[in-house]
Amino acid sequence: MSSNSTPYYFVPALSRHPAMAAIGLIAFGFGMSGWVNHTSWGGTLALVGVAWILFVLYNWFGDTIAESNAGKNGLNVDISYRWSMAWFIFSEIMFFGAFFAALFYARNIAMPWLGDVESKLLWPNFSAVWPNDGPAGLVEKFTTMGPWPIPTINTLLLLSSGVTITYAHHALVANHMKQAIIGLAATVALGAIFLGFQGFEYYHAYHELNLKLTSGIYGSTFFMLTGFHGFHVFLGGTMLAIVLRRMIRGDFTAEHHFAFEGAAWYWHFVDVVWLGLYIAVYWM
Fold this sequence. Notes:
Blueprint: H1 17-36, H2 42-69, H3 75-114, H4 117-122, H5 150-173, H6 177-207, H7 216-248, H8 258-283
């Protein structure tokens, strides 16, 4: 919930949550290290770490929501939340920018370089054409993923979700709570359908196209970009589902609803990233 106009800056009491989150992150780090080194305990410890972190976040956000509902968050806290969300989204832009840059480098710089005269001495039959499966014999043959039909359907789903969440925001500002709930619920549903289609697309890629994460630079960039985007859709959908629950129980008003706004900002970011991904990965 957005704060009221109280001028002071609320300072919460000492909290156990940061230390508990650190314990979970350490467990996850050690677990993943053990997992990739094929230890018997690695996978279990990593999953315990994830469960612990989720438990901490549930309680941490619960305390923060309780403080907001109690009216403890003044104007300065509201401003800090907005800046924090803006910088978080900026960091996510840089995150995806790195993967888009890797795709650009592979296609427009590394590929022509590998096809020049010197490289032909190593791989005489190598063709510097994208998509590429590398020098003959190093990567299993695969079929690339085109834009039809699932990626295009998913694009329509995300664009529609941008419309429904905007409708929900306008309804909330106008104090039409029922319409806001309907619009937000539709957004969550569209995000869930998107993930369902992406799961089917991955199944199709692995079992019918032989397209895997190990399918050369094409496979690795395809699954890293679409996979991380799917994870962000899941994260954004989770945020919106929590906001929906809070909206149903009456936590928001037409003036005070920053939790909704922050989640909506994030969802619009996810939409924009998908449009770039749809063009760069599926069409180009």
